[in-house]
Each structure stands twice: as structure tokens, then as C-alpha cells.
Amino acid sequence: MKRIQVGFLVSYDYELLKIAIPQIYKESDSIFLAIDKERKTWKGESFIIEDDFFQWLRSIDVDSKIEILEDNFYHPELTSMQCEVLERKILAEKMGIGNWLIQLDADEYFLDFKGFVKFLKSKNHFLDNPEKNQVQISPCLINLYKRVDEGMLYVKKPTKIMVATNFPSYKIGRQTRKRIIYFRGPILHECISRTKAELEMKFNNWGHDCDINKEEFLHKWETVNESNYNSMRNFFYMEPEKWRKLAFVKGSSFNEIKNNLDFFKVLPSRFYIWKKNLGQWFKHL
Fold first, then answer.
1. What is the CATH number of the domain that holds 103?
2. Chain mean position to CA 219
3. In this structure, are residues 196 and 146 in contact, taking their beta carbons and an 8 Å threshold?
4. pTM > 0.85: yes or no
């Protein structure tokens, strides 16, 4: 018990796991990959995982930490979001209540997982009676918006993301609606920095497929570039004002962006995080 358990939901963008898994491998106790056994998305679309991906998994799993969980996660009578929540709960049960349950998507890359694990272990008292003292842990998500000629456009202000919990009472995605504990550490999110075809595939098959105006969003996404991003506003795909401004960083690969982005300037201040955590403590007192 009180282990660091990491789970990934695996679907059509599984190739991104070749970036995501190495960031968390060393400090994880176990890593679980949830894959629909019929290779169906939450919308019922088919996808293929090539055999060489599983060969890659075997080659990197030098400590035998990776376990594959296959089940039927697509149910035609459920919405996409209901399918997502169901899959996350099944995965969490496999990971084991009484441990830190960290669930990530293939396009989420931890930059200081060692620091995050140290932070979680300082909160291990929440694992003694998790159902009674439910919490969710939110690092700072840096959303990558669009690849451009000289680098990457990203959302200037980081957002919260519920990646870990002590009790998986998920309501929407990874959100349990319980007390949030904020952590001042970055995750790079290759959210919509994809080709147009990849974006359309994502929008048609994820849990938020009914929540977005795809055509309106794609028009703005195609229009913005490194020359005009400073003059444009409101970029989020559901409530546009949540992503008010973009910023630019040179580099096209994960390592280039990681090296060129000044995370200390991008992340909120320690005082801001302290205030947020104090507010959550009072709210859930």
C-alpha cells in the first residue's frame, strides 16, 4: 500500500506514450495501460495499435513495472464521457485503493515527476482512510496549442489538472469534486498541437465530443500563427475565454521545448499556490 501507481488510457494516440512513459518510469511503482480489447474509442470508432509498440514497451520495461489491462470500455448505450469515467474507475480499482492513483493521458508529459512523487509522499496520511478524506492533486498544465514554423504556440496561463487522487470517485473525467491540493510543478500537454486530421479524430472520439463547436474552433486554430497570435484572444475549445492569450517558444520536439521554456516564469507564484490551497482547506473544512 501507499505505492505510486500510474495509469494511462491508451487509444489512437498511443505513439505519444513513447514520450510520456519515460518521464514517469523510474519513480513509479507500477504502470498500468488500459486498452479497449476490441480497439474501440468511446464513440465506437476503431483504431489499430501496431505490434512494434508492444515490442517497444517490452524493451523499456527493464524493471517489469508495466501491466496491460484490456477490457470492454466502449458501451454504445453510454455517452463518451460516461465511457471515460467507467474506464477510469475500472483502471483505478486495478491500481488499488490505498495507493496514490495517478491517471494520465498519452499526451501529458511530466517534467519533474520525482518532485511530484516527493510531494505525494509528504501527503501519505491521506491514504490511511481515503474514502473519508478524499483529495485530488493538481499540478500546473501547460497546454501546447499549435506547431508553427519556428516553434510552438502555447497557452500563456497554466491550467489545473486533476492527475492524482487517493479515492477515485470520478464524476467528469478525472474530476472527483473533492478537495484540491495544488502542486507547483509543470506538465506539458500536447493537447491540440497536432495536425488538423489528428484534431478532428480527437474531437470526434474523446469525452468532450458533445461540448465543443468544432468548426468555430478549427477556423481560429487554422488562422492563428506566430505573426498574429498577440493580436488574438480566447482560444479554448469549450469556453474560449478560459485560454485568453497565447505565447511562443522555439522548438518542435519535446526536448527542445523543455529546454527553451522558462518554467519559473510560466508557473504561478508559490504564494498563489499557497493561497489556493488555503482556500480549498477552508472550503472543505
1. 3.90.550
2. 25
3. no
4. yes
